[in-house]
Specification:
Blueprint (H helix, E strand, L loop, with lengths): L3 H8 L7 H11 L4 H8 L3 H9 L6 H11 L3 H5 L13 H15 L3 H23 L1
Helix pairs in contact: 2-4, 3-4, 3-5
Length: 133
């Protein structure tokens, strides 16, 4: 472990980014908060914050957990493989909002989903008419 830690600190470059920056970029692309990523990776928000700021480097075991939580490979986190990362559409906040909406929508029955969609369409049309006038 002591031999690997210095290697990680020098080899964790991803197109000019340190491993913490890669973690942050992937996390934001997924629309996750640090706390949400921490929960998925079985750690605490402070640990994720320390990784992202470069205060600490994830141990090998944590790299695997982070990779799974981010839907990437450890090779991507280490900069050994290229990752295609879609930037969030507007902001991390908008992505989190969309994730919440998706979870709530998925929890509804089919008929309830149809009602919600009709309400959204109605609100959208109303909003469009206001803009046009």
């Amino acid at each position: 472990m002591y031999i690997l830690q210095p290697l990680l600190k020098t080899q964790c470059i991803f197109y000019g980014m340190q491993i913490g920056e890669v973690i942050r970029k992937l996390r934001k692309a997924k629309g996750l908060t640090q706390a949400e990523l921490a929960a998925k990776a079985g750690t605490q928000q402070k640990v994720i914050a320390d990784y992202e700021t470069g205060t600490s480097t994830p141990p090998t075991v944590r790299l695997v957990e982070l990779a799974k939580a981010l839907g990437a490979s450890a090779d991507v986190l280490l900069g050994l493989k290229e990752a295609e990362v879609a930037e969030p559409s507007k902001s991390g906040k908008a992505s989190r909002r969309m994730n919440k909406i998706q979870k709530l929508f998925d929890s509804l029955q089919d008929e309830e989903q149809r009602v919600v969609l009709k309400q959204i369409e109605s609100l959208s049309q109303r909003s469009k008419r206001k803009k046009d006038s």
